[in-house]
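Before the break, one more example. Copy the sequence into your notebook; we will annotate it together after we see the structure.
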Amino acid sequence: MDIDKQSKLPMYAQLFEIITRQISSGELKEGDQLPFERELCEIHSISRTTVRQAMAELEKEGYIYKIHGKGMFVRGQAVKQSLMTVYSFHEEMMRLNRQPSSQILTFELIAPSSAVAQKLQTDEFVYHIIRLRSANADPVLYEETYLVQSHFPGFTREILEQDSLYNVIKEKYNIAFRRAIDTFRAINIPVSIASFLHEKQGVSGLQIERVAFIGLTPVEYTIEIARGSKFEYTIELQGVTMNSAISTV
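Here is what the structure looks like once it is written out:
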């Protein structure tokens, strides 16, 4: 895409689009340095004022960052997750043009702790699964899941290695979650988890607790630790009836 000087779209906005497309396509990757102002002026036959306007917008929108004396660099883009429905990480990443992958760190059948039993309202055995979830090979979520065994007979690590969890639940067990309760909490990522997420000790993150139901029966309890710099949640409110709760600790 070249700058069209006959277009009604301002030239700085056209440059903005050119660079964001290069970032989204992978032509420009996280940490890459953008050409200097003078180079961009020569490449696109535009003024420095136009370039500076485009750079200001790119920085404002979080696409790039400035290092004084060195130039402008591509910022790693946050994964934007919509919470309008009960979502699948795998499907959402595919929708966002990100390549999802999961590393299974733990898969075991255990008796639930008292805290987990309280969340799932049962003392039945549960599958305990810990996974590291990545987008384009970049780890973004540390996820610990508990599934009530009786609802998922015959579930194995090998089955999970072949498909996403929610797809297994849907295809093998004919279950599609329609209701879940998510609870969010800002945290400092624990030392034991920070290294998995390629973060430093004490960096800020987001903890999401989820309880998913079949009818009124809770069957899944998941705790996710998300990298604050790599994951962004969006909640869209629609309609006239809305149940919400805000709590402080």
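Strands lie at 64-67, 71-74, 79-82, 100-110, 126-135, 138-148, 179-188, 204-214, 217-227, 231-234. The chain has two domains: 11-74, 79-234. Try to locate both features in your own notes.
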